[in-house]
Design goal:
CATH class of the largest domain: Alpha Beta
CATH architecture of the largest domain: 3-Layer(aba) Sandwich
Strand order of the largest sheet: 1-3-2-4-5-8-9
Distance between the termini: 37 Å
CATH superfamily of the largest domain: Alpha/Beta hydrolase fold, catalytic domain
Number of helices: 11
Radius of gyration: 18 Å
Strand content: 15-25%
Order of helices and strands: EEHEHEHEHHHEEHHEHEHH
Shape: globular
CATH topology of the largest domain: Rossmann fold
Length: 262
């Protein structure tokens, strides 16, 4: 997987230092489009679709070390090994942490958004969402709104349904999921975990959490600082787990301050 990673990416901006964004479970690189535009012209951005998501390849397995190594291989090839800033949210934050620990020469500054280097809670919620999506009869859909209507009973939050249905795409007259939902459901225990990595990353790290989220807890701090000794913490008021979409202005402000600081 690391020899020729088939990753779909989008570039936004053409001036300034480079920031690479890694999305969370069910996400796509384009989830950070507005954030990337707001960082211009001081920063240029690369939005990555992680394996088994968006327009990137399906791999048949889920492993944080493999994914981190694949992204690292892509970065070396795309930018000649020049260090970049790396931002990862949730599952993407775990990929980002593993990548920084295993390939520190590729990363200047690291931003970890609402996740910890520890097993995550919420697996039951994600299992419910995945089961709801995989149970949808795609052949019976005429339009995207049909899927939204069918999911309303099991997923009552309209915003959550809208986010999930971004993964539904029509190709050659048929609807299909961009994300490999069967694989993600099967590998939820791995996604919820965090691998053992015997390394440290001593560059600056911003650890950003949502005030109303419980993915970052006090008992995680010791491990975070053991792996990332130069960690700065920020809690975004009024935000839950999806900090960048719930409080975009505060998110962009924190990124800009941290990434552009001397």
């Amino acid at each position: 997987m690391t020899s020729a990673p088939d990753l779909h990416t989008t570039e936004i901006g053409d001036t300034g230092e480079r920031v690479v964004f890694l999305h969370g479970l069910f996400g796509q690189g384009r989830n950070f489009t507005q954030v990337a535009k707001a960082l211009q012209p001081e920063l240029r951005s690369t939005l990555v679709d992680l394996p088994n998501h968006g327009r990137s390849a399906w791999t048949g397995s889920v492993d944080y070390v493999d994914v981190a190594d694949a992204v690292a291989t892509w970065l070396r090839a795309a930018y000649d090994g020049e260090p970049v800033h790396l931002v990862g949210h949730s599952m993407g934050g775990k990929v980002a942490m593993v990548l920084a620990l295993r390939h520190p020469e590729l990363i200047d500054r690291l931003v970890v958004v609402d996740i910890s280097p520890a097993p995550s809670g919420g697996a039951g919620e994600f299992e419910h969402l995945l089961t709801s999506l995989t149970g949808l009869d795609l052949d019976g859909l005429e339009r995207r709104s049909d899927a939204d209507e069918q999911l309303a009973g099991s997923i009552p939050d309209e915003r959550v349904r809208g986010f999930l249905l971004q993964n539904l795409r029509r190709e050659e007259g048929r609807w299909r999921w961009q994300a490999d939902l069967d694989l993600l459901l099967r590998e939820l225990p791995t996604i919820a975990g965090f691998p053992g990595v015997d390394a440290t990353f001593d560059h600056p790290v911003l650890w950003m959490g949502g005030e109303r989220s419980d993915y970052i807890r006090p008992e995680h701090e010791a491990r975070m600082r053991e792996l990332f000794p130069t960690t700065y913490t920020v809690t975004v008021k009024g935000a839950g787990h999806w900090v960048h979409s719930e409080q975009p202005e505060a998110f962009v402000s924190a990124l800009r301050y941290f990434l552009l600081a001397d």
